[in-house]
Amino acid sequence: xxxxxxxxxxxxWYRHREWKPTAEPKRDFAPAKIESPADAxxxxxxxxxxxxxxxxxxxxxxxxxxxxxxxKIFKEHLKGFPTIDAAGxxxxxxxxDSVEGDAWKPVSRGRRLHMFDLSFKIKxxxxxxxxxxxxxxxxxxxxxxFTHDVFAEGVASKPDLRLSCPDLRVLDAGxxxxxxxALGHKSWPPAAGxxxxxxxxxxxxxxxxxxxxx
Length: 214
Prior knowledge:
By secondary structure, the protein is an alpha+beta fold. It is built from three helices and eight strands; from the N terminus they run H-E-E-E-E-E-E-E-E-H-H.
């Protein structure tokens, strides 16, 4: 019978105790720095300038009522009309003292729009001379559906014009026809030299200031 000595080399199960340090140099532990969010570089993205309030940075729909302002400057522009020659007489246009409707400047997708829908009356006096002396009649042209689309490029929009002058019947046929032509209410844009052409020029002036006001 073979007796196994404790020192026999076959006892490999015990050899894990025989580990010895290697000759590698000792390395010191160096902790790595972990950056906090505050230390990390901040990426700044440029944003396009948009119209509207500070809270509406996304440029979504935002409405702004400017009716009072629009009415105020409307009456400042719609005055001082020239005298229009008509049928051997003259048409005098009164200053516009009243306007109705709304005006608003919404922001849509970062773009400011200049919108309005107004109505008003153009009052006039036609004076002429005949065998009995100077005579005159009064009337008005009601303007409705005067909107921001009227002067917009590429948009076929026009206001509605309605003449109210019952006393036109006192005129003879020729003078009546000539007076109506001089009023210029039957077409848009109005013909040159007519009362409504003078009104249109004032309206364009008003619209330019209204849009410029922002």
